[in-house]
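Appendix C: a fully annotated inverse folding record. The material below is reproduced so that readers can follow the format used throughout the book. The structure is listed first as tokens, followed by the designed sequence.
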């Protein structure tokens, strides 16, 4: 009776995110002139605004940018008395995702990393290879220098192979799992359903989406003006920006340390987090809330017994997080990661066995291997051998580049990185795990990943140096591409549409990555007071990464990794997470609560959780009651509108900042 009840609770929670759709009978080309123009709009307008928002306030608007673009396109088509087709919406989403990835933040991170104070303390800045970022990157604030030629060229090459690689092993796995094994892919219709709904409502009969979207956009513009535009514009005019609301948070640690020692206490005024809480699964947010409570109770206890011994009164929130990470949470989080993997594997196995039994009884798992070679020309299929050739060539390229970059163009302190390990990554581990994960995605809608594989093999290889952490190693899981192809199929989109889209988006990404990075870097040093979120969190991010990277430093001296890596703390994280899982499973509590709770045990920071929980309560107990069964649809569109409004006002402010910074000061 117990397991049956658990399945009922879980299915009820997932039902809002899963609507199965039949495979269409016809396919059409979604690559039109309209999708090209709207993709350029996202690439050259929304992408730089997204990067700027993230640097200033830690806000992401990737999905919102897709939604605003699609809804604008739908509105244009309505005015032209035309109905938008599903394939056009899918291709537009696909292109928007690629364009948003070209914001250039990666290069800004690179120039910061080579001058990071935390990595300098670990003795790592001198070991970051020049083909990743030049050591003097911070002195000139320009990517248009000879020293950046190799990093830019490698990035262009890797971006090309990554775009081509989408049609390699991922496509082969799609053909095997979707066509040959005919797996149902229960989560793929989530994305397809939204695109279908937009296409079906692209006439005058259903306009609630635009009203809800406009309400969200108006709120996003109003809040974005106060939260982002005012500080940006005043910072460009005056010596110090005016900030009506603290960005990214208000640090209260020094006021609470008497009662809560070693507990970072912050409060965020970001309304976007409240909106996020309204959209996220309720029980996942409640699990994160428990993580904050757990941290508030455990940290003072650990500090009292000397585990968090590096903490001292007077430390800021970020200093507290750094010391706690080094003393305890680095290893404790590794234990949590292993626990999540174990729980996910057990959960997937049980669901896998159930669905496998169902499909066996109906004969759906009887494999006809001849179907693997049969091309559906209506769908625009490419031959299987082409996909295998793409996978082989791209993998060989990754292996060759990694071996040359790490062993020939970087200082090798002791032992070279073994070629056999690279071959194992590319031709054994990647295809094996991709197939297992793709089958899991196809049967239960979840993917399988084994944590710490890359890190463990790097450490056990005997290699000494830092270059391997920045190299393009051929260690991939193509399950995401498999699901993307399934969504493509459900929307009736021809594969050739994606090939055309890739031809357009590659130069767009290549140009945008450099231009947007240089554009934002020209406004001021990154990070700096002009970019508060990056100024607060990038050193912490570098510190967390450096703890792991230091594992392959020379034996001389004391590696921070050796001090932070504690097997007993790893075991504690694993044991605590599995214990909580057993208790929650015993009482048949929702699966989202289980994952939210376990992930929240890793020193959850209250500045993000508190507003998110507020949004969850508003959505659960007021909005759901007010709007009834339509609330799950309303909240997605409202959140997209809010993000779009934030992005548009940020783009306006960014344009003003750029003009102010570019103006010449006339002599008096």
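Designed amino acids, in order:
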């Amino acid at each position: 009776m117990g397991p049956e009840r658990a399945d009922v609770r879980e299915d009820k929670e997932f039902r809002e995110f899963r609507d199965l759709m039949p495979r269409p009978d016809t396919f059409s080309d979604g690559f039109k002139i309209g999708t090209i123009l709207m993709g350029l709009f996202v690439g050259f307008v929304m992408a730089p605004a997204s990067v700027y928002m993230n640097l200033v306030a830690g806000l992401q608007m990737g999905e919102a940018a897709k939604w605003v673009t699609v809804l604008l396109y739908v509105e244009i088509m309505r005015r032209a008395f035309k109905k938008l087709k599903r394939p056009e919406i899918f291709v537009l989403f696909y292109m928007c995702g690629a364009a948003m990835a070209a914001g250039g933040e990666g290069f800004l991170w690179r120039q910061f990393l080579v001058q990071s104070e935390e990595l300098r303390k670990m003795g790592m800045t001198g070991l970051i290879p020049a083909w990743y970022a030049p050591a003097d990157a911070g002195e000139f604030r320009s990517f248009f220098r000879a020293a950046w030629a190799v990093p830019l060229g490698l990035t262009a090459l890797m971006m090309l192979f990554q775009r081509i690689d989408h049609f390699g092993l991922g496509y082969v796995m799609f053909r095997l799992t979707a066509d040959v094994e005919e797996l149902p892919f229960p989560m793929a219709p989530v994305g397809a359903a939204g695109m279908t709904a937009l296409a079906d409502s692209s006439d005058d009969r259903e306009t609630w989406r635009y009203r809800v979207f406009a309400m969200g956009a108006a709120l996003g513009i109003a809040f974005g003006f106060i939260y982002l535009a005012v500080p940006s514009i005043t910072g460009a005019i005056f010596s110090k920006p005016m900030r009506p609301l603290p960005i990214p948070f208000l640090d209260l640690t020094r006021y609470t340390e008497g009662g809560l020692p070693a507990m970072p206490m912050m409060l965020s005024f970001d309304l976007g987090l409240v909106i996020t809480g309204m959209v996220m699964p309720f029980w996942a947010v409640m699990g994160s809330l428990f993580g904050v409570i757990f941290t508030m109770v455990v940290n003072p206890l650990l500090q009292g017994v000397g585990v968090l011994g590096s903490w001292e009164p007077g430390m800021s929130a970020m200093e507290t997080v750094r010391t706690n990470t080094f003393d305890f949470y680095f290893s404790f989080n590794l234990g949590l990661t292993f626990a999540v993997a174990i729980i996910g594997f057990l959960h997937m196995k049980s669901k896998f066995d159930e669905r496998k039994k169902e499909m066996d009884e109906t004969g759906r798992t009887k494999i006809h291997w001849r179907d693997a070679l049969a091309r559906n020309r209506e769908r625009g299929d490419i031959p299987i051998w082409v996909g295998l050739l793409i996978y082989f060539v791209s993998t060989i390229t990754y292996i060759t580049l990694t071996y040359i970059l790490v062993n020939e163009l970087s200082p090798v302190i002791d032992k070279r990185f073994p070629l056999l390990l690279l071959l194992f990554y590319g031709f054994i581990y990647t295809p094996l795990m991709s197939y297992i994960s793709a089958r899991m995605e196809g049967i239960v809608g979840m993917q399988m990943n084994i944590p710490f594989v890359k890190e463990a093999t790097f450490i056990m290889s005997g290699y000494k140096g830092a270059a391997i952490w920045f190299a393009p190693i051929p260690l991939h899981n193509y399950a995401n591409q498999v699901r993307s192809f399934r969504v493509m199929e459900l929307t009736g989109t021809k594969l050739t549409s994606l090939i055309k889209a890739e031809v357009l988006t590659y130069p767009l990404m290549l140009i945008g990555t450099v231009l947007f990075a240089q554009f934002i870097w020209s406004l001021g040093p990154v990070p700096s007071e002009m970019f508060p979120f990056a100024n607060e969190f990038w050193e912490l991010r570098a510190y967390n990464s450096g703890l792991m990277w230091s594992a392959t430093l020379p034996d001389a001296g004391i590696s921070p990794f050796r001090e932070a890596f504690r097997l007993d703390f790893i075991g504690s994280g694993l044991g605590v997470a599995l214990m909580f899982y057993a208790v929650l499973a015993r009482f048949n509590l929702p699966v989202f609560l289980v994952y939210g709770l376990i992930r929240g045990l890793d020193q959850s920071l209250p500045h993000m959780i508190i507003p998110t929980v507020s949004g969850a309560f508003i959505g659960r107990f007021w909005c759901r009651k007010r709007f009834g069964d339509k609330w799950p649809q309303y909240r997605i569109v409202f959140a997209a509108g809010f993000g779009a409004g934030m992005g548009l006002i940020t783009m306006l402010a960014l344009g003003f900042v750029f003009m102010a910074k570019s103006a010449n000061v006339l002599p008096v």
